[in-house]
Amino acid sequence: MTELEDEADNRLYILFWQLYALVYDRILLSLLPYRRLQDAVAKSLNPRSEAYILDAGCGTGNLLYHLIRLKPEVKAVGIDFAPAMIRRARLKCRKYRTHRQRIYLRKVDLNSKIPYNNGEFQAVACINVLYAVKRPDFLLREINRVLKDRGRLVLVTPPYQPKMGPIFIEHVENMKNRRPYFWPFFLAGQLLSLAPWLFTFLILNMFIKKQESFHFLKEEELVSLVESCGFKLISLKKIYGNQDWFLEAEKINEKPGNKISFSN
Ligand SMILES: C[S@@+](CC[C@H](N)C(=O)[O-])C[C@H]1O[C@@H](n2cnc3c(N)ncnc32)[C@H](O)[C@@H]1O
Question: Which residues does a 6 A CB cutoff place in the pocket of ligand 1?
Answer without folding.
Answer: 17, 57-59, 62-63, 80-82, 85, 109-111, 127-129, 132-133
